[in-house]
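Researcher: Here's a chain I'd like modeled. Treat it as a single chain, no partners, no ligands.
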Amino acid sequence: MRRKRSAKIIATLGPGTSSEEMITALFEAGADVFRLNFSHGNQEDHKRRFDIIRSLETRFYRSVGILLDLQGPKLRVGEFKDGKVKLQTGQPFRLDLNKEAGDEKRVCLPHPEIFQALESGVDLLLDDGKIRLKVSDCSPEFAETKVITGGVLSDHKGVNVPSAVLNLSSLTEKDLGDLRFGLKLGVDWVALSFVQRPEDIAHARKLIAGRAGIMSKLEKPQALDHLDEIVDLSDAVMVARGDLGVEVPPEEVPALQKRIVFKCRSRGKPVVIATQMLESMIHSPTPTRAEASDVATAIYDGSDAVMLSAETAVGEYPVEAVTMMDNIIRQVEKDPHYRRMLETHRYAPEATAADAITSAARQVAQTISASVIVTFSSTGSTTLRAARERPVVPILGLTPRADTARKLALAWGVHSVHTEDLKTFRDMVVRAIDAAKQEEFADIGDPLVITAGVPFGTPGATNILRIAWVE
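Model: Modeled as a single isolated chain. Structure tokens:
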């Protein structure tokens, strides 16, 4: 089941999209990867969804990726005597560790890590930035603040500390349990929330131990201070614009998005743009023109994937949202300006044999008008190198490992297929031709460009480029 586009779509599953019928409909509409959001639902719910997604592969003969999105630390105020209070601009307001119900003068903030990181003059954002407080005095047990932007504050609203690095692990006890559960199931990607520094990823990598790819969610401005190291340590990156847009001014988010996308592309790491892409389609069958333009911008920049969150998890038009995203992507990719933009932002290959071969494969495919580039890879590294080149032809990624095929479902331009391992050079050519015909990428007489590594099965050993013709 071949997609007629290069960029991929991630669809979040939720209460309205948990049945086999709905998940199948989302897949047929264009979803390439499904997100299981562990901030909501229980493990049994996610297990049922997981099993349905895996059944799609045998029904449609296509590898499907599954992304486990961990909740991460949730910083929230405590409760109020009346459930909520009205904070007036200019009034004093105290945050402390006292668990008694709050009022107009104070409330519990049960996170000592926040107080340890505060200093006078720091801003605190509450309820997704609707309320802003400025710290005037603080200690390890309290913070005296002045209300800069007032409003109604109710129980358990979130707290953001944009300018401080908190001494918090990105993995809570809940996350560790969910991670063990997901890895046992066999998820393909793990989205790591609340990443602040490279050490957060290194810790997760030790726990995951190669059983899934790590997708770092960039939602904290502190992470941008270590962008190079975080991208290098990650297997993929998500631009989580919702939380990022709370902690930095909204006008800065577009430039940050482009900076992250171009950094990931230069490193050959898949990059996902997420949050509020077609937000109005939660309740409307069509998006706003601004939302369509937002999706298109992510595609013009060369992002690997765009993600739907509430639109498919709880929205009234989940299938229509995926269909619309598919339509927007295909329309952009037909635009000649799209190809010119990709060429403008092409990155020089590294001085390695593998990069030289992959760069040459793109050039050869364009010169001879090949129908497809066929890559053989056990780990996916050869195929991701091909995707980094953003060739004008599709990439048919063949791999002997089912888990690699599923991970590659996220990568730009890649149609991944689980196949038997190679034994001989002739086997490589025959397998490439057969797969290209079977997957409807080539007809009799069409040229193919093939890349692989010898000895076969050696990770990262891309050293062969072969042109073959379909017979």
